[in-house]
Design a protein that fits this description.
Elements (H helix, E strand, L loop, with lengths): L15 E5 L2 E4 L4 E4 L2 H4 L8 H13 L10 H14 L3 E5 L2 H18 L6 E5 L8 H6 L3 H4 L9 E4 L4 H5 L7 E6 L15 H12 L2 E5 L23 E4 L10 E5 L20 H14 L4 H19 L6 E7 L2 E6 L5 H8 L2 E2 L1 E3 L3 E4 L7 H19 L2
Parallel strand pairs: 3-13, 5-6, 5-7, 7-8, 8-9
Antiparallel strand pairs: 1-2, 2-3, 4-10, 9-10, 11-12, 12-15, 14-15
The chain binds pyridoxal-5'-phosphate.
Pyridoxal-5'-phosphate binds next to α4.
Length: 390
């Protein structure tokens, strides 16, 4: 491994050479079942032919022109995303953090339009919104903040899934928005009580705050709906997407509705690469595949089945604290730190993740076969059992 790389990742000792569907192959020819999808990115599996073809064709036609000109693919992708999400406008960028930066700039300017000189965005404990200065400041994890003060100001933090804590802020005249993940991903797959988003929506309506949903991990079918807020029948004012939007092609998006669509004007925000013809060709191909063969409702059904298989297989394990999930977003929380499981799984040819130290996180591809699903359940159950009862 190159020592010229900046020391930002403790990487596992494996190099993948190619991938196909739910599997990857390393440089020694060993195959792995990928139950992490490059952290919820390659939802449609590796080297999906329709997406590879779209990228290949577009790259031979045109890759980049800049946002100084009209871009047909960008307009088409915006139309498509708005139709699916009930949002109205889209700003394309290259990552999740950039999508959230856009959302935060919209919130700040919305405040200044109302002569609020120190606009405040409400954010959650245990949240994750990215690694840029503003998004790490919004993130609710002290470890992410360490060493980077002074942080960006203008955030108030409250516990996740706690309506009373939000209601207690209703007299604060500087609040302009709530930024929240519908399900906390990096935070350990935390699913709020039913009705949480709906109540947040009501509060935001009463207070004229923007409800800004970070669906960078939960969006694009991951939870068994196009977007997680659709489980609760609401629509946000601002929505951020990235990860699975390009199935590996870097692309992010910030979508708005109503008043939030009117905040930014030319000169307020921009990007050189964002929304280029190549990235948008990938996005269009992804949506096309997700729309075919009941792909997303299958994620809902298969996810529930997988969750129940784990619940059944691990039902005798008193050291398993909780097994929770929705769609293909599953967390298995143990009563102790279990980061070693990642390396042990790798040896067994299985890619998983552990987040928050004690929670096995699964974000499988949507294209796992029944045999591969069986393999995932068998191998992971065995690994967890051996780990808990050595
Ligand atoms: C991954 C993630 C981000 C950051 O996305 P990047 O593309 O890494 O900048 C932000 N929010 C959530 C919920 C995420 O899962």
């Amino acid at each position: 491994m190159s020592t010229q790389l900046m020391n930002t990742y403790a990487r596992l000792p494996v190099t993948f050479e190619k991938g196909r569907g739910a599997t990857l192959q390393d440089t020694n020819g060993k195959t792995y079942l990928d139950a992490l999808s490059g952290i919820a990115v390659c939802s449609l599996g590796h080297s999906h032919p329709a997406i590879s073809d779209a990228i290949c064709l577009q790259s031979k036609k045109l890759m980049h022109t800049s946002n100084l000109y009209q871009i047909e693919n960008q307009s088409q992708l915006a139309d498509k995303l708005c139709e699916l999400s009930q949002m109205e406008r889209v700003f394309f960028c290259n990552s999740g953090a950039e999508a959230n930066e856009t959302a935060l700039k919209i919130a700040k300017k919305y405040g200044h339009q109302q002569n609020i000189n120190h606009p405040i965005v409400v954010v959650m404990d245990n949240s994750f919104h990215g690694r840029t200065l503003a998004t790490l400041s919004a993130t609710g994890n002290p470890k992410v903040h360490e060493g980077f003060s002074p942080l960006v100001e203008g955030f108030i933090r409250v516990p996740f899934d706690d309506i009373d804590a939000i209601q207690a802020l209703s007299d604060n005249p500087n609040i302009v928005a709530i930024l929240v993940e519908p399900i906390q991903g990096e935070g350990g797959i935390h699913i709020p009580k039913k009705g949480y988003l709906k109540i947040l929506r009501d509060i935001c309506d009463q207070q004229n705050w923007f409800l800004m949903l970070d669906e960078i991990q939960t969006g694009m079918g991951r939870t068994g709906e196009w977007f997680a807020y659709q489980h609760e029948g609401i629509v946000p004012d601002v929505l951020t997407l990235a990860k699975a939007l390009g199935n590996g092609m870097p692309i992010g998006a910030c979508l708005t509705k109503g008043t939030a669509s009117e905040v930014l004007v030319p000169g307020n925000h921009g990007t050189t690469f964002g929304g280029n013809p190549l990235a948008c060709a990938a996005g269009l191909a992804v949506i096309n595949v997700l729309e075919s063969n009941h792909c997303i409702s299958a994620v809902a059904a298969k996810g529930e089945l997988l969750l129940n298989q784990f619940k059944h297989a691990l039902s005798q394990q008193k050291h398993v604290v909780d097994i929770r999930g929705i769609g293909y977003m599953i967390g298995i929380q143990l009563d102790r730190p279990c980061t070693e499981l990642v390396g042990q799984a790798l040896e067994q040819g299985l890619l998983i993740n552990v987040t928050r130290g004690d929670t096995v996180r699964l974000l499988p591809t949507f294209v796992m076969s029944p045999e591969q699903t069986e393999e995932l359940v068998t191998k992971l159950t065995q690994l967890i059992q051996n780990f808990l009862n050595p």
